[in-house]
Amino acid sequence: MFMNSSKNNTDSYNIEINEWVDSLDEFIDDLGEQRTVELMKTLRNHALRRGVKLVGEALNTPYINTINVKHQPQYPGDTEIETKIENINRWNAMCVVLQAYDSGKGLGGHIATYASAATMYEVGYNHFFKKKSADYGGDLVSFQPHAAPGVYARAVLEGRLTIQDLKNFRRELKPEGGLPSYPHPRRMPWFWEIPSASMGLIGVSAIYQARFKKYLENRGLKDKNGGKVWVFVGDGEMDEPETLGTLNIAVREQLDNLVLIVNCNLQRLDGPVRGNGKIIQELERSFLGAGWNVTKVIWGSEWDSLLERDHNGILVDRMNQALDGDYQMYSVLSGEKVRAHWTKDNPELEDLMKSLTDEEIRTIKRGGHDVKKVYAAFDKAARPNGKPSVILMKTIKGYGMGKAGEGKNTTHQKKNMSEVERIETATRLGIPLSEADAAKAQFYVPEEDSAEIQYLKSRRQTLGGSLPERTENVKPIELLSKDIFAEFDKGSGKRELSTTMAMVRIISVLLKNKKIGKYIVPIIPDEARTFGLDGLFRYAGIYQPKGQLYEPVDADTLAYYRESTDGQILQEGICEAGAIASFMAAGTAYSLHGLPMIPFYIFYSIFGFQRVGDMIWACGDMMCKGFLLGGTSGRTTLNGEGVQHQDGHSHVLSSVVPNLKSYDPAFAYELAVIVKDGIERMYHHMEKIFYYITITNENILMPPRPKKVKDVDILRGVYKFEESKSKSNKRVHLLGSGAIITQTIAAKRMLEALDINVDMWSVTSYQELERDAVATEREQLLDPKSKRQSIIEEVFGKEKGVFVSVSDYMKSIGLSISRWMPADYAVLGTDGFGVSESRETLRDHFEISPKYIVLAALNLMVKKGELKMSVLTKFMKDKQISNDKINPATY
User: Fold this and answer.
1) Which of 112, 199, 426, 729, by CA, is between 20 and 30 Å from 714?
2) Model's pTM, two decimal places?
């Protein structure tokens, strides 16, 4: 019976509490763990109904291991020999960085991260990480970037890399080759599968890789034969919003193929992650709140007997009270000082700790360095349970480095150790080297027939082979039929349409293609209706692993919101990071899954590179393929939206990614040619490139394709769209692109009214032109006898007249080719912030409307002596162009 609320006698209260605890113990013993869980849920729900506030308490468990020692599985490996292998690998990983430092080349490197994570990796390598086989889907393992030296060192023990490779760490341009600093597939395309070097991005990338595996399985493109995504991240990088911001989708989509291991060494680059708090408890709340399976691995096996004797919970209370700053301090103090601080003013705790010597207290392990605790956590996470799993693994940064760096705030930057420290470390790790060799940080590799090498290779053979390993077992697709997009060559007749509408039609054609339709992956961040893609809902369906459990409100319409287990469209909601992660997963399926998946990711162009440029760079590193489509592009074409929406610089940002090809097509037939060629280059010729194409929402009458215009003219970046038939000596060349081609057409009519000939040029890609020109100059530099001409010189070299370039992007786009253009060349663009206005007014404001295009041409002609100043001043007066107009670049 509950005590009367008026009773305040402490002794009576404690007796009552103990009786309830005893009753609970009997319940556990009699009915077992599952019934106890049900009881606790029932009691909790009842208390909540009575108004008792328990929410905050429910999202944290005590600061102890989640898996009780009673439920801990038996460790299947040989701990003695595995410890030897781990120590050898620790030593060699240290030596990778130390030898790089000793070279005097300032190469850098990191010792402490792998030192803290080595036990986790070794347990994974020996017992969990499985390679793809005929009957298993294969595991994808993403390593912490700063742990790369340890991964390289283990690859030497497996016979995949050589000692010379390790000596050439961060020396990639050595004649015999070298190793990159971090996991970079572009630099080791046979080894690294996924990049992880940009802090915070690997979490979201891995979540969507796991999700894409499920997508392929539910669409019948991949067998449902397993395959985990194991992701190792640091506790410090969990502060990156991209990681925690995408936790919910992993639960919604039941990604039980995902295991996230957070290496909680309590330190980031400069100091503690949460000195005044507890990062493990904080992360537990976040993950439990999102619905993940959470396993905490905090204490090593030496703590088990102490916790067993902790009948009154004083030890657990102390574990809960101590801050991360305290725990970090304990890693550098003597055992005597740790004991004094730990048991201060608590005689009962002091008595409990007497069973340990000071030395045992100093060296007592954290859970992440105990193979039995790590194995138990991995074993639990590896079992399918309908939810993603996270393991919060407590470690010490620099573990094994001793006084040279263990647990210190400076350990992340530790790249060197004194000779004494090196010798002490080698001795402590049991590395059989002479003091002289240890002082030089010489590598140690046991003989091939040694017990260590034989055991290590045997374990990997049992698990299918070595990891990581990147392969490209994908068959090239057939060339597309020549007439697949023939309809676009005819123009749109009397019907106006935008390049966005043309792209939707192109995607529709591809989806219905019997040969490659199943490989098309439309990706949309909650803007399908903006881009006119809602028409695809009914045909292709929106991917939803649970199907559609409700009747959509628009079920009676033609383009209703249809969700399906085998849906083809990835509708990502308002999450650009998630959408680009899906693009990366789809665009790398050719290597990870042997499938030529072709993603089309359409987004507001200003929210692409500007927001997720770092992940797009990672796409380049991972040799991703596919099409990034910048919708509603152009500073003045997306009218009315203003500063945050109007894009005039995405082509500037896209130009920095070396293997990304950028196009700004004006007409539907140009778009069709670019897409067809892109698919064939990426998926038939197997080029490691991807595309950025801007498409607009301005409707125009799409012209038919001029008969003389070949595919190569469109693809290389520029072609003459229309040539003047007049024989006048006065000639202007107007270079237009994207939606602004209509402004050059209007300007052409105004110039012809002044008896000036006009040739019209469509520039589909300034970037392609610039890259070709730069490559030509390089060839001429290295080979002075080279006769190669750039495309720009070839096309414009013999043309007479003046040249005006105009686009809906910053002037730097047109100026990027100015060095190779004829001297009389002017550039107009949209420098400055966007403005909420009508399209016509915006183009006047940014000085790219027809009258400003004509003004630029007349200015050049006056300077060249081909036109009188009076003609220019009259034009300015007639068109009300003032020289004190607001400067759009600074407005």
Assistant:
1) 729
2) 0.93
Average pLDDT over residues 339-358: 91
Say if residues 623 and 246 touch (Cβ distance below 8 Å): no
The answer to whether 123 and 75 are in contact (CB under 8 A) is no
- The helix (run of H) or strand (run of E) holding residue 753 is helix 741-753
Q: Which of 697, 221, 663 is nearest to 504 (CA)?
A: 697
Helix (H, G, I), strand (E, B) or coil at 648: coil
What share of the chain has pLDDT > 90, as a percent?
76
Q: Which of 63, 61, 71 is nearest to 372 (CA)?
A: 71
Regarding beta strands 757-763 and 718-722, do their DSSP bridges make them parallel or antiparallel, or are they unpaired? Answer: antiparallel
Mean per-residue pLDDT over the chain, rounded = 93
Structure tokens belonging to residue 841: 């007014």
CA distance 498 to 503: 9
Q: Is the separation of the CB atoms in 258 and 206 below 8 Å? A: yes
Contact 803, 825 (CB under 8 A): yes
CA angle 302, 294, 288 (to 5 degrees): 135
- Counting other chains too, the contacts that 435-442 makes at CB distance below 8 Å and 24 or more residues apart are 440/102, 441/94, 441/95, 441/98, 441/99, 441/102, 441/417, 442/95
Using alpha carbons only, what angle is made at residue 140 by residues 135 and 146, rounded to the nearest 5 degrees?
155
What token pair was written down for 795? 């096309």
Question: Of all helices (H) and strands (E), which one includes residue 207?
Answer: helix 201-218
Residues 726-763 as b or e (16 or more Cβ within 10 Å = b): eeeebbbbbbbbbbbbbbbbebbebbeebebbbbbbbb
Which stretch of 19-28, 404-413, 561-570, 615-624 has the lowest confidence by average pLDDT? 404-413
Widest distance between CA atoms in the chain: 111
- Nearest of 726, 758, 759, 762 to residue 742 by alpha carbon: 762
**Residue 80, burial from CB neighbour count under 10 angstroms (0-12, 13-18, 19+):** exposed
Q: Are 389 and 364 in contact (CB under 8 A)?
A: no
How many Å apart are CA 407 and CA 413, to the nearest integer?
Answer: 12
